[in-house]
């Protein structure tokens, strides 16, 4: 958390709230959020005087685009932005404040302190960590079934970890992978390189549909996610798999199971998403009815 739809929602609300504003000064109270440059004083001084021109997104990263500079920001587990008047009290766990010349602040809060910020000369962000190795953007027109097949089809891992790998396709996390695999009727442990052409087609379409609908709903509010204006997303009410262990599958009525795939809590319907590996795999496969504790699989 958050995944592509939540970051996209933050991007859209931040666009409304801060584009056009000019930075007067910056205060960093938790240096480890700032991954680049190493020198926090340099980070604070380099931003002075810059105007925010646009808010972009690459995968789960926000790109705060200024005249000549780009700040790449990852919210990780619980990072969030808010815009306040400077006179308003600063809440606990506020680690970075961008003071604007109009008397407002963009404040970054992060209870878990896992979020990161990297500052670059404009354009350099794509040539460096953390953006350099990122894979396909699933909501862009360039995400065709051909490029999806090229990137994913030969992978030898199970399909769920392959979809979570940001070097192949960006933006999918634990929630939306479970949703997309259900939508495509594919078992989360299906070996990626044995997916049929039909399964690849269904999965490609399911990824786009799931993410598009979630963006339209403003993302999902699981745990503490809120968008840049303090509003909750609504897509959690539309989730068909995630968080519904033991509840009835909306398609067939069978109880939804939870297991662990690649270390992540994973929801699926054993009827709608039958396992289609080799018979050996079927024998070895054990779906634990206990699963793991709810929430244990919720990672960035
Ligand atoms: Zn079902």
Distance between the termini: 4 Å
Instruction: Give unreliable regions as ranges.
Output: 278-300
Q: What is the spatial order of strands in the main beta sheet?
A: 2-9-5-4-3
Order of helices and strands: HEEHEEEEEEEHHHHEEH
**Quantity of strands, as a count:** 11
Main sheet: strands, sense, barrel: 5 strands, mixed
The chain-level mean pLDDT equals: 89
Beta percentage is 15-25%
Number of helices: 7
Large-scale geometry: elongated
Rg result: 21 Å
Molecular structure report:
The protein has seven helices and eleven strands. Strands 2-9-5-4-3 form a five-stranded mixed β-sheet, with helices on one face. A four-stranded antiparallel β-sheet has the order 1-7-8-6. The protein has a two-stranded antiparallel ribbon with strand order 10-11. It has 300 residues and is α+β, with helices and mostly antiparallel strands. Helix content is 24%, strand content 21%. It binds zinc ion (ZN). The site of zinc ion (ZN) has 7 residues, from loops.
Protein traits:
single chain, 300 residues, alpha+beta, elongated, disordered C terminus, binds zinc ion
Fold topology:
Blueprint: H1 4-18, E1 23-28, E2 34-36, H2 40-46, E3 52-58, E4 61-66, E5 69-74, E6 80-85, E7 94-100, E8 104-109, E9 116-121, H3 145-152, H4 159-164, H5 174-183, H6 197-216, E10 257-261, E11 264-268, H7 279-284
Parallel strand pairs: 2-9
Antiparallel strand pairs: 1-7, 3-4, 4-5, 5-9, 6-8, 7-8, 10-11
Helix pairs in contact: 1-6, 5-6
The structure holds zinc ion (ZN).
